[in-house]
Amino acid sequence: MSLEGKTAVITGGGRGIGAAVARALAGAGVRVVVSARTAEQVAGLAAELREAGHGAWGVIADVADEASVANLAREATDRLGRVDILVNNAGIAGSAPVTRITLEDWNRIFAVNATGTFLCTRAFLPGMLETGWGRVVNVASVAGRTGGRYMAAYSASKHAAVGFTRCAAAEVAGRGVTINALCPGFVDTEMVRESVDRIVAKTGRSRDEALADIVSTSGHGRLVSSEEVADAALWLCGDGAASVNGQAIVIDGGGFLG
Ligand code: NAP
Fold first, then answer.
1. How far is the CA of 174 from the centre of ligand 1 (A)?
2. Which of 51, 61, 131, 257 is deepest in the core (most CB within 10 A)?
């Protein structure tokens, strides 16, 4: 697919799913700003993309911080001229039974996964509405469509991101802009490796057993790859998906939702 001439900001773009989305968009001709808090990761990915002949810049930003998001919007607009595509991918996880979730952890997870999605959308949407073309892709989670044990804070924050997606999509309908969410099951990234570490530390089970438990929630008996999520994001950005708006698309091999 060609998106030649378009521009994009990808939050949480330094590694994992965000990095795969940045590579996919750049490969389709999109000039990208990759953003996250870890300087080496965003600079490293931007350098990799530039070496491959793409237009790419790294900008450090914390999506949970309003001033930092305002600075990201300024820097991205300086480099790209205008921003056509926003991928709200930055996210953090955490697991605990409801009775042991601290207010601090609850607020921290909401600040990134829910508030960060709102702050970035609010910052970039006006430019898209002005040009009459735009795409917002929110990387939520299958946990934003269903629930399970020990994930109440994460799941609630992702339900918030999905609800926000549906409401914002209704507001922009018919104006050349679409806002959708992707809801992956477990994806082969650092986030899942950390989940495995937590299970091992809390239960004393082996890494293989912990991973097998995670994989058993998917319909196809494996983790989803970052590239599969990136492919879906790329499709949502194309003109062929212009009529898809306000959706929360599950990518989990068919398992989690039963
Ligand atoms: P990851 O490898 O841990 O990457 C998360 C990215 O988000 C990193 O680049 C991280 O960079 C960035 N980030 C975290 N907090 C941030 C903040 N406050 N401001 C800006 N950037 C921030 O995880 P991933 O699996 O690729 O996750 C990407 C997204 O997919 C998340 O929203 C996650 O919830 C969602 N997801 C993941 C899975 C999965 O199984 N892996 C499944 C469903 C949905 P810094 O730490 O450097 O800021």
1. 31
2. 61
Enumerate residues 6+ apart whose C-beta is below 8 A from 175: 129, 132
Instruction: Supply the mean pLDDT for the chain.
Output: 96
Q: What are the angstrom distances between the C-alpha of 130 and each of 8, 117, 118, 160?
A: 16, 20, 19, 26
**What residue segments make up the domains of the chain, in order of their start?**
7-185+224-251
What is the residue with the minimal CA distance to atom 42 of ligand 1? 186
114-144 residue pLDDT tens: 999 999 999 999 999 999 999 999 999 999 9
Amino acid at 196: V
Class of domain 7-185+224-251 as given by CATH = alpha beta
Residue to mutate, 37, 38, 217, 257, ligand 1, most ligand atoms under 8 Å from C-beta: 37
16 CB near ligand 1 (under 6 Å): yes
Strands 85-88 and 134-139 come out as parallel
Block mean pLDDT (10 aa), the chain, length 258: 95 98 98 98 98 98 98 98 98 96 98 99 98 98 95 98 98 98 97 92 92 90 97 98 98 74
38 lines ligand 1 (CB under 6 A): yes
- For residue 256, the model assigns a pLDDT of 54
pTM of the model: 0.98
**Closest-lying ligand 1 atom to the alpha carbon of residue 223:** 40
